[in-house]
Amino acid sequence: MGSLWYEDRLFIDGELVAAESARTYDNIDPATEAVVGHAADASPADMDRAIGAARRAFDSTSWSTDTELRVRCLRQLQDALERHKEQFRPAFVAEVGAPVTTTYMVQLDMPIAGISWVADLLAGYEFEHDLGENEVFGIRSRRTMRREATGVVAAITPWNYPMQINLAKVAPALAAGNTVVLKAAPDTPWTALLLGKLAAEETDLPPGVLNVISSSDHRIGAQLTTDRRVDLVSFTGSTATGRAIMAAGAPTVKRMFLELGGKSALVVLDDADVAAAAGTAAFQITSHAGQGCAITSRLLVPANRRDEIVDQVVATIRSIPYGDPTDPANLMGPLVSKVQRDRVLGYIERGRAEGATTVLGGGRPAHLPTGYYVEPTVFVDVEADHTIAQEEIFGPVLSVITYRDDDDAVRIANDSIYGLSGGVFGSPDRARAVANRIRTGTIGVNGGMYYGVDSPFGGYKQSGIGREMGVPGFEEYLQIKTVAVPA
Ligand code: NAD
């Protein structure tokens, strides 16, 4: 593993640097439990320098107004990522534990390719709109609505889809003319530090425009939420952390853009294609070992067809190969860390204690004694108010809940503090009608996939505020100025 290609230095004010304290911390491969390398362990002083550099670059350079430079830098960043993607892929798999097969899709290749969509959007974007004339207090004026960069953006990201989420923030934030401090999740520093390396070595990004920080300490992220030089916090992570960030940002009235947790429902109507629904249910709960904010971790089935549907779901999950993420045959790998594995196992215990029954899995796989693996697990006899039906588990654990009729299914689906995603299977019109009644930011009908660089993604309720990706995901990073001149 000594041959992995990665970057361990911070990127501050245009330079790749060690942490001021010279400290590093271990990067652990969740599939082998081995230390595969290190990353700079930033201190408050490093973060302070990064924020200062971003502030200066925003306030005293033409970055925010030079659209041509921004388009060029985005394209350079994409080209650089494409050039080094194969070198980096093994390090990515080693730090994330994501099956290598998925890196050819949403984990790595798709987000990198998506930068060009952002660059194209920027190249054609109209920052000013004429609002026409009006007359107030006898003054006739012509008004213009102008969109401008917000300022210094703090991008704070989780470990589960690190390249996708880092780029879904950094690319539109830079495109909009902001300067950025990207704070990586402690478990996945290299994916972020690589962006810093390539920005430093292969783009014309002016110093301070992008800064990248890794640290083993969550408090380094908290610094971004209280510092008055930061204008906007763009955060993806748990709802608990989102609440803390909102509270921390209140004294400086920070703009908040929050992508938080989920407990999404997949509703199978009684006229659904059961095999197709079972395929989606099985794929979702095993994808990245259930470590997805938008996965459907609740399966809602009609009471009178429960056993037939559950049998198909269990049979489909059993057919999904899992284990070593470097093996292209495997579609599910380990959880990211021992902490996460133990957390998920704790939820499984809780499910049993509250009276639910496992019909598949329910522990650590005997054939994978090393690595942070959890068996794909299916619970039946789950009541809608059980902990495993309400809390985000973030592991391959599916809770099956029965319902009486469509209204009951909608009620149970909406009985959640979350509203991030979901799915419905059934005859097309009926499934669509049910989908429209579920309070959630994204939903797939009969297996439809909503994900795309041009599709807005985000949550209702406590799943977040704002939308990532698509045109709305770009405009989150802009603010609006109304300018009036005498007509
Ligand atoms: P987390 O909330 O523990 O941490 C996320 C990031 O926030 C990390 O970089 C962490 O260091 C930082 N952080 C922690 N405490 C902080 C604080 N007080 N102030 C500022 N920063 C702080 O989340 P996680 O465990 O890394 O990721 C899993 C969570 O992310 C799940 O809840 C999942 O649903 C959510 N998620 C949401 C989306 C989405 O788009 N809605 C996408 C992926 C993951």
Notes on the structure:
The protein is α/β, with parallel strands linked by helices and 487 residues long. The protein has 2 domains: 10-260 and 464-486, Aldehyde Dehydrogenase, Chain A, domain 1 (3-Layer(aba) Sandwich), CATH 3.40.605; 265-452, Aldehyde Dehydrogenase, Chain A, domain 2 (3-Layer(aba) Sandwich), CATH 3.40.309. Helix content is 38%, strand content 22%. It contains 15 helices and 20 strands. The protein has helices at residues 44-60, 67-96, 100-103, 109-124, 162-175, 189-202, 219-226, 239-249, 274-286, 306-318, 338-353, 387-390, 406-414, 428-437, 470-475, and strands at residues 10-12, 15-17, 24-28, 35-40, 128-136, 139-149, 152-156, 179-183, 210-213, 232-236, 255-259, 264-268, 296-302, 357-360, 377-380, 397-403, 422-425, 444-445, 464-465, 478-486. Strand 10 (232-236), helix 8 and strand 11 form a beta-alpha-beta unit. It is globular. The model has no long low-confidence stretch (mean pLDDT 98). The site of nicotinamide-adenine-dinucleotide (NAD) has 30 residues, from helix 7 and helix 8.
